[in-house]
Specification:
Number of helices: 11
Largest sheet: 6 strands, parallel
Number of domains: 2
Helix content: 25-40%
CATH class of the largest domain: Alpha Beta
Order of helices and strands: EHEHEHHEHHHEHEHHHEEEE
Bound molecules: pantoate
Oligomer: single chain
CATH architecture of the largest domain: 3-Layer(aba) Sandwich
Shape: globular
Radius of gyration: 19 Å
CATH superfamily of the largest domain: HUPs
Length: 281
Amino acid sequence: MIAPIERTLTGLRAQTAVWRKAGETIGVVPTMGALHQGHLSLARAARAACDRVIVTIFVNPKQFNNPDDLENYPRTEEEDARKLESIGVDLIYVPSGDEMYPSGFATTVHVDGLTDMLCGATRPGHFDGVATIVPKLFLQTSADQAFFGEKDYQQLQVVRRLARDLDIPIDVIGCPTIREEDGLAMSSRNLLLSDRSRIKAPVLAEVMNDMAERLKSGATMTAIQDEARTRILAAGFNEIDYLELRDGSDLSLLDAAKPDARLFAAAWLAGVRLIDNIAVE
Ligand code: PAF
């Protein structure tokens, strides 16, 4: 059965109050829609861990620094609801812009440090948008657990930090990146790739995996990154925003592998920005 869709905060709260009264736990999977297997894996993890599961769909304008990017972001609500059918989600929360940002809305949440680098450096305001909407979704759903993909690893660390700093009583659970058969990390943005770009896209993960192997054998980023960048650009990518090795907790920059090191990349392919990260331990 397709899960009921709730568009108002009042309706959402009425439903969660019933669940709370019955002593049931609630899991939330925040999304911007255009659901793929990565999102579905989060919904399945929530289904396995919690009595009730809410998937939220809201294309958050505050986290887009480029109006065209916001305009082009895929919106596929009916299809999304159908995809969630087999998982047995209890509620899909699809608030309007006015519901989330009513007239006079004046608050921005900013997480220091973790948001200065990687996507934070190239997408000004993006993480303020994420850090503002996510606690709202946590508080609106009153969830006990929230499920996020490691694909957006920096976002996951930012969300963990803000939940701790703001004392929001929620467990933030990171779930592994789900990949296409050719290694491309699943992302709603993959829908924007042309057929030609889709063939080139897996090169990013391929190069990162090769780098990870060399880093594990003792190579440094200084020694290997020029060649890696050349391979990515030669495959047809237009620009690399970053290709960096960082600590998986505080995201500080590294030159050599160590426990909890991760390789992070963002690169443009014919107008589509792809990001990926892999553990290098
Ligand atoms: O990862 C996303 O889809 C979004 O950044 C999120 C967490 C739903 C907040 O808008």
